Batch of 2 targets.
Target 1
Amino acid sequence: MRVAVLNGPNLNLLGKREPSVYGRETLADIERRLRSLAETFGVTLTFSQHNGEGELIEAIHALRGCCDGALLNAGAYTHSSLAIRDALVGVEVPFVEVHLTNIFSREPERRHSMLAPAALGVVCGFGADSYELALRGLVARVVPRG
Amino acid sequence: MRVAVLNGPNLNLLGKREPSVYGRETLADIERRLRSLAETFGVTLTFSQHNGEGELIEAIHALRGCCDGALLNAGAYTHSSLAIRDALVGVEVPFVEVHLTNIFSREPERRHSMLAPAALGVVCGFGADSYELALRGLVARVVPRG
Amino acid sequence: MRVAVLNGPNLNLLGKREPSVYGRETLADIERRLRSLAETFGVTLTFSQHNGEGELIEAIHALRGCCDGALLNAGAYTHSSLAIRDALVGVEVPFVEVHLTNIFSREPERRHSMLAPAALGVVCGFGADSYELALRGLVARVVPRG
Amino acid sequence: MRVAVLNGPNLNLLGKREPSVYGRETLADIERRLRSLAETFGVTLTFSQHNGEGELIEAIHALRGCCDGALLNAGAYTHSSLAIRDALVGVEVPFVEVHLTNIFSREPERRHSMLAPAALGVVCGFGADSYELALRGLVARVVPRG
Amino acid sequence: MRVAVLNGPNLNLLGKREPSVYGRETLADIERRLRSLAETFGVTLTFSQHNGEGELIEAIHALRGCCDGALLNAGAYTHSSLAIRDALVGVEVPFVEVHLTNIFSREPERRHSMLAPAALGVVCGFGADSYELALRGLVARVVPRG
Amino acid sequence: MRVAVLNGPNLNLLGKREPSVYGRETLADIERRLRSLAETFGVTLTFSQHNGEGELIEAIHALRGCCDGALLNAGAYTHSSLAIRDALVGVEVPFVEVHLTNIFSREPERRHSMLAPAALGVVCGFGADSYELALRGLVARVVPRG
Amino acid sequence: MRVAVLNGPNLNLLGKREPSVYGRETLADIERRLRSLAETFGVTLTFSQHNGEGELIEAIHALRGCCDGALLNAGAYTHSSLAIRDALVGVEVPFVEVHLTNIFSREPERRHSMLAPAALGVVCGFGADSYELALRGLVARVVPRG
Amino acid sequence: MRVAVLNGPNLNLLGKREPSVYGRETLADIERRLRSLAETFGVTLTFSQHNGEGELIEAIHALRGCCDGALLNAGAYTHSSLAIRDALVGVEVPFVEVHLTNIFSREPERRHSMLAPAALGVVCGFGADSYELALRGLVARVVPRG
Amino acid sequence: MRVAVLNGPNLNLLGKREPSVYGRETLADIERRLRSLAETFGVTLTFSQHNGEGELIEAIHALRGCCDGALLNAGAYTHSSLAIRDALVGVEVPFVEVHLTNIFSREPERRHSMLAPAALGVVCGFGADSYELALRGLVARVVPRG
Amino acid sequence: MRVAVLNGPNLNLLGKREPSVYGRETLADIERRLRSLAETFGVTLTFSQHNGEGELIEAIHALRGCCDGALLNAGAYTHSSLAIRDALVGVEVPFVEVHLTNIFSREPERRHSMLAPAALGVVCGFGADSYELALRGLVARVVPRG
Amino acid sequence: MRVAVLNGPNLNLLGKREPSVYGRETLADIERRLRSLAETFGVTLTFSQHNGEGELIEAIHALRGCCDGALLNAGAYTHSSLAIRDALVGVEVPFVEVHLTNIFSREPERRHSMLAPAALGVVCGFGADSYELALRGLVARVVPRG
Amino acid sequence: MRVAVLNGPNLNLLGKREPSVYGRETLADIERRLRSLAETFGVTLTFSQHNGEGELIEAIHALRGCCDGALLNAGAYTHSSLAIRDALVGVEVPFVEVHLTNIFSREPERRHSMLAPAALGVVCGFGADSYELALRGLVARVVPRG
């Protein structure tokens, strides 16, 4: 099973950016943790980060036929990008929406997700653990319990 | 560590109620699975279901000082009950909001959660697996990684 | 054919409560009238009233597999309770929404029904006669004209 | 007792128009059924259909002083025509609003009635039976139970 | 003169629940104070708390003909329950709406009261004193100044 | 100077229709009064009433090049008809919007005029006198004070 | 008969202020014209202008018991001042709302009147003639046609 | 192939009505052009204009079973008429919505189409050419490219 | 302890203004009553009324450092004046918002208070008694129970 | 005449992406068809696709002074990008907005175009034919009929 | 060049009023600073503060023909006063809107300016420096760079 | 002191793009002017322009730890980009929002800034001078007056 983990704008700042909100773990820390969990599932992981909407869309296009599922933390694009949702639906790859923070306890402009209606599920609020939970959820749904 | 799992209205119908939406597993199946996972964490689990808003509130009150965290699937009360949110905040027990379905891909009246702003995190869309992921997330957050 | 008639909050006050709005007939009067009409159709009737949302939900659950249709006057819960609608859909019993008054000529908060989208039909504004018309409508729809 | 039954735009297509939504009975079938029921009540019935808003208004004007009640299925004008409501209030004839379908389970633009605030009551969702129930309701309200 | 004091959901937690918001006095403290004030007015007091909406409705029904006025702190139900307002109007007992906190300086979802349109008056923001002021106001309005 | 006075739906009922709202003068009375005033200004008057939106539009079309100004009481079409406004703008005849009642003190659906943005001016609330004032205003504007 | 003509903020600039919108006549010109018309009706006129909301309110208070009707052009306060409406209702003097321009063809913030619901009628769009028409309308309504 | 071209209110004024907005071509010019294009496709054309909503509905009814597609410029009815949409859906004739102007660059009340959700496609902004493009589009869709 | 009682626009009309709404007591009556109650608390009272927003603001400015608390009935300015709220916050004097009527059972434009978010508490609906209750509440909060 | 055809995000997936919605023709097929039509008009065509908003903006900038018109299918950016509209207006190139699907019969978030107010016209709903119709419309408008 | 600096309600409290928000400089400090800067530009400055809306309007009227530009900090009136905007437009004096704080990072009711649409420009968020920047901006715009 | 000046989409067109709105100065002219002013303050300036949202975000990321403040004219992204605001907050560089035009006097979609809540201050409406004023304001705030 091949899983892509896609990260959106500003996530490269993780660890330094508003640590009281986003924690002190860096994106590299998250990648390391996730690779270690993926291994236990026999899952091959690709991991990337993109600040541009167009680049994120093209990274999604590249998944078509090449991966079995995705985790997506689209950052601030979560709340507005119909183009990213269209890309996800267009490539026919099941995905889980992930957020470090509980977006529902933050500013009003972060409480709505444009992507969620197309997602398999949503995990948010567990910091870096959100990614691990999302990976478990994705694996369980795509390869359902025998 | 003691964890309470609280279920709201209509969840007693699980397995029979709109199986194409909610799946065929019953609440007893979910309880069984969850107890088995809890055991591996050394977590003591209580598990209950309540159709009345007042009863759910009183079940929450009973957690005060008696448990270390909770999973809550408040069903349709999720979207409207300020009283349940007040109860949760009042007893000072960290909780994770859980849903079987991805509430963000359903009818508009299910896309807003009155409870989420007070939650630690939210997990939705993974069917019965949502409960397991939420338990993992709760345990990880309440007893953080050493 | 078995039909359940379910009444929501404050309907036990009927006859005494704002008679200029709701009329002078009591719920017992309505039950009597309705039983008499049901008899002519060979319909077995159960008739109950519940002030709590949770109790109403449980009364609905009890209908599953035990009745062929229902009349529901959910009183003020009509306008807000997604949980009651979920219960009705969950038990798969066709129902007719009934109101004594024409809810569309009253205060704005009474002009929207959360339940109606799941109903077979709606009858309102005929006082106690609304129940009789609803019973006729239900019987005709569930046992259609040969 | 004289009762007018007025039908609005597109109802002449009944039976042919979207039969999965509106059923296969024609307006003539409904008229026949209704005349037969009216007879049992000693009610004289007039029955007409109008595609124009102005024509429907003039048909309503003609009721003034000439009939004791009306059934009105104003079709799509139901949702927008203040002029038809003004006509109904102007001629002082009590009327029941009728719909073949349950308008509350349809598109948002059909869920609001401009006419209902002026109606005696509303019956919808029972197909052609809606007319019969409405007639019963009207007769019972205009000639109340002795 | 007989006065009922009714308290809604979560008020049993008073003193322990968010003391920085609701203060350290318990509901028993408030009852004690209020009884002492009532005595000086020759008022007989009943005092109760209910977490369920249905139970609160039934407590209101019980007032019909048995008391001359009521104080009501409906907690979070204040903002949404039409059924409680219907109960209050139905039993024809004048009541004063009471809140410990100034609900208008709190979250948006607490700034609207569904009950206030039916109340004699509203007192909020004075902590436990709100109840005493409300009792004074109720007594003065029901037994007006000679 | 030639002036057309156009009246919309239900105005033929004037005198009989809700006299407490619209007064007891008939449309014929208003016509008589207006003709008498018009004479003093040397104005030739045409006067008509139309219940259909299409008929009113065609009556407006007929004004093109044949009259110097118009008074329009479009009744309930005032609040919704863009087609009538288009007709008025299309024929390039200056007009005054007239209402018997003060539409701003009535139901919300009557407080907005679709036509007013294209009008010379608006006169409302003076009963039949509104027409006379409007005629004076129109004459003064179209033949301005020397 | 005594009539007060009250003018609100910025009307002292008339003639100089945006003449393409408000015309070249000054407030003194309007006063002169209006006095001349009032004389023909045997009406005693007072005429004033106030830039402050409080001053306008006090000018209205002074009318109580001292005049039989009023014309009010409250300028920009028209669209927001509940206090001025309260003053008008409080002194029980019938008034006509007047505007030089057709406020309904201007910016959105000018299309709503806070005062109109309490007015006898509204006249707008006829420039200085609006005042004359309003005076005629007021006189006719307060001293109705014999 | 038979195609009906239906035109709504005020389009008979074309050429004279606001030529800076709608151009100088008349409806007869458009008809002539369209007939000439239709001929090249072997399409039989009917062409009509209707100012009344009811008449337009009846013109649509007449298409049932008699034509293979339609072009519709419903003028100002475009933005509000559910009855016309119902008629179009009822007769099961595929249609293209046409406008002379780009309705999306005009006043807000013209930017929404009630009809478009039921249309095959929309062409607007090309003046009289809009009709020709719409005819080409309709023909290509109804008789798809071999 | 020094307390200022500030009254806003139109309150000078009290007793004469809409007595069915506001009662027959005058502002002087209220002042008399309040002075007598203040005496029993050893409170020095200043009492004033202002029709202008600017004057009310300046009266509030004068309280800075000169008084320990205030009662404010800002009349219609309650619902719109951010400037008055700024003044109150600026002078750092705790205040209670007072209304004679229950503003929540009146017109929609009176149901929102711009001032309440900055108030200690709110008392409304008890007629002149509202002032007395507010004074008691203010004294109890500013000099809390020993 | 030189015409640029610009395509926005996800259009490179055409043919594979949701073929039931967008059809089976690829963007290369559309380009081929369009070049063939352009040739018949003597039009020189450039054709490109861009997934990034910034890249699309820069492609638009490149048109300044180098082309006489454009066709733009901005995909999901249509509904939100003010920056793209600014670019189009900034380069002063007339353009036609094109969509494969009838955006008005799809999800609410696709029914509004941020670009259309600046367009010459709009063509949507004809699949790949939309481009051909748009090219015809553009050519006819930019080089109007002699 | 003559420039007027006008300050609205509560600005007289500057230095004492919420210093954490508005800073510790007084209005006199700002005036001093501004006079010193004005001198370097050869600008004659008048400087005033007004708590009443009417007084501010009259201060604006006094500018007509007597000054070449203005700085306006209208305080809380900024967000609601159409009358002040009318005064500014009426006297034809170009003005710059100034705020000490960044009004866009404050409460929602401060984020909209009624005045800004008529302003030359807006400067906010620089404390007392906002005035200096605004003066520079005004001078540069009114006497543009040679 | 190091200051970065960042410009968003379409600003490279300055001087040529809608000169009646944006003026005739080019971005190079603004840079020249600004460099000259910066020199007088001993400020080192970097100056760049970016059409892509992702590129602008990355330019902001590059500021972290490398500059003391920024001026940002984000063009049309101002009104919608939460991702840019997140980047600005994430790099912890104080910035001033700049616009050439007074965005509050333009189309509604330009009147709201997504970025302003995170800015130090806002300067708009002074054309190229806006940048100079913003630089002065930034310098004064970051190196406050001794």
Note: The mean pLDDT of chain G is 95.
Target 2
Amino acid sequence: MKKTHFELIILGSGPAGLTAGLYAARARLDHLLIEKGAAGGQVLLTDWVDNYPGFPDGLSGFELAEKMEAHARRFGLNTLTANVVSMDLSQTPKRLTTEDGEQLSCNALIICTGARPQLLGIPGEVEFTGRGVSYCATCDAPFYRNMHVAVVGGGNTAVQEASHLTKFASRVTLIHRRDALRATKIVQERAFANDKIDFIWNSHITAIEGEKGVERIHIKDNSGKETSLAVDGVFILIGVIPNSEMLPLQLLKAEHGGFIPTDNETRTAIAGVMAAGDIRSKEVRQIVNAAGEGATAVLAAEHYLNNSTL
Amino acid sequence: MKKTHFELIILGSGPAGLTAGLYAARARLDHLLIEKGAAGGQVLLTDWVDNYPGFPDGLSGFELAEKMEAHARRFGLNTLTANVVSMDLSQTPKRLTTEDGEQLSCNALIICTGARPQLLGIPGEVEFTGRGVSYCATCDAPFYRNMHVAVVGGGNTAVQEASHLTKFASRVTLIHRRDALRATKIVQERAFANDKIDFIWNSHITAIEGEKGVERIHIKDNSGKETSLAVDGVFILIGVIPNSEMLPLQLLKAEHGGFIPTDNETRTAIAGVMAAGDIRSKEVRQIVNAAGEGATAVLAAEHYLNNSTL
């Protein structure tokens, strides 16, 4: 009979899930990592990773995901490819249901389902992701030395990152659909005082074009007037969406549209349920801190399993 | 004139400090990383690192430290070798004083001074560290498949790790200087019920011996009787000491003998001061989560610098 109960289930196979898998396998926990598709999560969409410590020359997102997966497999990672669509975390054991109707259960659960950037949904956006279109200035700013980049957004992230980008780019054009920014006052003031930043108000991008990489964007203002602007890159910083559709958000006390609050040890509001990586309610979403949280989560899970009377 | 003021100072060059350095350099922050000795911290004392995600075959601690340092240097890390002996964090800018009397100041500070294991201070202990003597079962347990290991200690960590080690070792002997354990009841019960674990009470190790690696330990009980025991490894799990001698512990609301409490974003009780890595008050001390916290700390520092009116 197929095994359906595990001490620990890890949901998701990005850097947090793969690191949790590595630690769970090394700890010889009775575990299962459930992955929806190929291992790597958002890292697979990242052309080049220059800021995961220990790889001085950088490496492709694909290569990093492969290495992380191979690492966990070396220690005996158990995986299942399935799409979990719902779960019952109100009792022990915790129960998960897949799209195919399969039922799985576990005593401890680590949620690593990640998040995804809010897309504009315009022609050229997906095609040029990693080749001029970026959703992370912290990751990609250094690739744009002495270039002209556009930033889309008006919140704290967009405005702060516009200022940050001027340390590399020669010119930053911030495009916002309203006539005022939402960012904190002082962040706004610094952007306004920065002569490398110019602003296009009441406007949105309608298309991204180029040959090998981004060369220009089309902009439409609220009166319907269209223009185009030559740029080398576009940073789309309009928000992050948690992959939390399958989660019991109320029980997990989810906030900001589905992110899961945790304590410093990645424990959620539900005993025996941890959350690691981009799905956590937090400020900084980087590969290395997702990985770090994956390790912390397994040790928190072990602690829970060792100290509970299940 | 020599520059003595920086936007950001990072104190310490273990995985947390080096990752903070990488992120600070990449963000082109006006920064200085102060290292006491060679970069790497405790990683330099680690013979083989098998659990830093992305290196499926493992690598030596020395090699990982070198790679992390080279990575940060590639992006322009600025370092100073100095021993900071005191600091004034009660005002802005924050002031640091080195052993040589040098004065440095900064607007934001990231404390990554780390921690060190409590040693037994017996012959053979230092000589065999990394060759049979270990202070981290999570890191080293898989090296002891089908071997006999001793565990020294009686607290939660020691007893939990003794149970954990039985997943690999064929026999675990726990040696405790008292006649009862301090660990949580249920953790104790599981250890007592585990027939791979035996206990030597009211005793301490007086020496560790062997040729290339650990072969035997000498044990003395409280009545003075001496015996010896053949073992392949010794896990010394009697506590962790924070490297906090130079820190204003009261201002930082330090706890558990000098560890620094922080929020999820690594912010301490002092505005503009972050703490990352083993110096943080936390449960899990692993290379990858130290690194992750280093990244988080720089983004928290940037946020502080962007939003303060310094």
Note: Residues 12 and 112 of chain A are 5 Å apart (CA to CA).
